[in-house]
UniProtKB/TrEMBL annotation, chain A:
Pathway per the UniProt entry: Amino-acid biosynthesis; L-histidine biosynthesis; L-histidine from 5-phospho-alpha-D-ribose 1-diphosphate: step 5/9
Signal peptide (from-to): none
UniProt domain Glutamine amidotransferase: residue ranges: 34-172
Stored SUPFAM superfamilies: Class I glutamine amidotransferase-like
InterPro entries: Class_I_gatase-like, GATASE, Imidazole-glycPsynth_HisH
Keyword set includes Aminoacyl-tRNA synthetase: no
Gene Ontology molecular function: any one: imidazoleglycerol-phosphate synthase activity
Species: freshwater metagenome
Oligomeric and partner information: Heterodimer of HisH and HisF.
Annotated Gene3D superfamilies: 3.40.50.880
GO biological process: L-histidine biosynthetic process
Name of the protein in question: Unannotated protein
Catalytic activity: L-glutamine + H2O = L-glutamate + NH4(+); 5-[(5-phospho-1-deoxy-D-ribulos-1-ylimino)methylamino]-1-(5-phospho-beta-D-ribosyl)imidazole-4-carboxamide + L-glutamine = D-erythro-1-(imidazol-4-yl)glycerol 3-phosphate + 5-amino-1-(5-phospho-beta-D-ribosyl)imidazole-4-carboxamide + L-glutamate + H(+)
From TrEMBL, chain B:
Pfam families registered for this protein in UniProt: His_biosynth (PF00977)
Keyword DNA damage: no
Protein name: imidazole glycerol-phosphate synthase
Source organism of the structure: freshwater metagenome
A GO biological-process term: L-histidine biosynthetic process
Keywords: Amino-acid biosynthesis, Histidine biosynthesis, Lyase
Enzyme class label: lyase
Recorded GO MF terms: imidazoleglycerol-phosphate synthase activity; lyase activity
Length: 185, 236
């Protein structure tokens, strides 16, 4: 299993790499040829989009999605797949998924901490923006926690920072990749 | 931390060596800690950078959120720590010296990765690991930090630090009421009731002295809190 973690020089990609290595994945830089490309998510939308474009990752991810190859987006990595985000005064995103990211309106913002998702497990969240999309597949406190569309799977929470439940979530993702159920040929 | 070891004092004085950061980090993670915070308390004073290599080794052991602070003065400092495996950086003295740093970091890293640590004594802010007084009021500084882009406030009461007599509820309550970002209460935890009390007003409670001699205490504290009706996640 070859996994490429997109390094767009925004924040902590190392925790995703550590989590993947623990699950036996082999890390590669080859976003086109890998079995799973991960778009991690720390940073702000505008600076992340700029960095993606600088490195040609926007084109690579669009191509990968068009080819039906598995992509996992985490936190901001989920939001960047949408059409736009309210962050940084309005940011145009990759536009691979319908919907947009809006600034959270209730509770303390950023929403930081452990929260339960529909599947019953408790995961770690750290975000000020959230997705509004018809492609949502799981929620947490009414906030979109997971998105699926074609070969894309997005998690608003950080499975790589969510202890044992997070490791189980990532293991399931790798199983979907292995069995081709996340591929759209 | 100081000198690559975990140290703990009382009211910021008399730091004692209590263990190896890699071992303790792993022990707390294994026992259900929700998050790990490393503060290199001598970094500012000794004008040296936080130990990036140590952060790398600790991060290797963890699968929970990891906040690192101490001596961070620039975006490059913060970036190096995040790339070593920290999820958030905690800034304190450098933010007091140049508040614009908070905004710069928030713009680059996102607010959720920027913790502003405030050390308060008698409601006033102290800087440089509690060695230097300022004229700032803790509540006012917390509000300014939030406005400038802080994603969390880590509020340590120097008066309560290491005493195990309970959190400084007055300053914690005042700061939590004044800001709308999450507040982490720190300093003074001695038993489960103290933690429960802090969690009524703050969004997280930091534990240090109470755990360092006996990491196993974390397991029993979580169970006691659960029995008191405090929502504690199932870490298994």
């Amino acid at each position: 299993m070859k996994v490429a973690v997109c390094d767009y020089r925004a924040g902590n990609i190392r925790s995703v790499e550590i989590a993947m290595r623990r699950l036996g994945a082999e890390l590669t830089d080859d976003v086109d040829g890998c079995d799973l490309a991960i778009l991690p998510g720390v940073g702000s939308a505008a600076s992340a989009m700029d960095a993606l474009k600088d490195q040609g990752l926007d084109v690579a991810l669009k191509q990968r999605f068009a080819d039906g190859k598995p992509i996992l987006g985490i936190c901001l990595g989920l939001q960047l797949m949408l059409q736009s985000s309210e962050e940084d005064g309005g940011t145009e995103c990759l536009g691979l998924l319908p919907g947009h990211a809006y600034r959270l309106r209730e509770g303390r913002i950023p929403r930081i901490g452990w929260a339960q998702v529909d599947d019953g497990a408790t995961y770690y969240f750290a975000h000020s923006y959230a997705a509004e999309t018809p492609k949502a597949t799981a929620w947490s406190d009414g906030i979109v926690a997971e998105v699926r569309d074609g070969s894309f799977l997005g998690a608003q929470f950080h499975p790589e920072k969510s202890g044992a439940p997070g490791a189980r979530y990532l293991a399931k993702v790798l199983e979907e990749v292995r069995s081709k159920s996340l591929s759209r040929a | 931390m100081a000198g690559g070891r975990v140290v703990k004092g009382i009211k910021f004085q008399g730091l004692r060596d209590v263990g190896d950061p890699v071992d303790l980090g792993a022990a707390y993670s294994d026992r259900g800690a929700d998050e790990l915070v490393f503060l290199d308390v001598k970094a500012t004073l000794e004008e040296r950078d936080t130990l990036v290599g140590l952060v790398r080794r600790v991060a290797e052991q963890l699968s929970i959120p990891f906040t690192v602070g101490g001596g961070i003065r620039t975006i490059a400092d913060a970036d190096a720590l995040l790339r070593a495996g920290a999820d958030k950086v905690s800034i304190n003295s450098a933010a007091l010296a140049r508040p614009r740093l908070i905004t710069e970091l928030a713009e680059k890293l996102g607010s959720q990765a920027v913790v502003v640590a405030i050390d308060a004594e008698g409601g006033r802010v102290k800087t440089r690991a509690g060695t230097t007084e300022t004229t700032l009021d803790a509540v006012e500084w917390a509000k300014e930090a939030e406005e400038r882009g802080a994603g969390e406030i880590l509020l340590t009461s120097i008066d309560a630090d290491g005493t195990r007599e309970g959190y400084d509820m007055a300053v914690t309550r005042a700061v939590a009421a004044a800001v709308s970002v999450p507040v982490i209460a720190s300093g003074g935890a001695g038993d489960a009731s103290h933690i429960a009390e802090a969690l009524e007003v703050a969004q997280a409670a930091l534990l240090a002295s109470i755990l360092h001699e006996d990491p196993e205490r974390l397991t029993s504290l979580r169970e006691e809190l659960r029995q008191m009706g405090v929502k504690i996640r199932d870490a298994a």
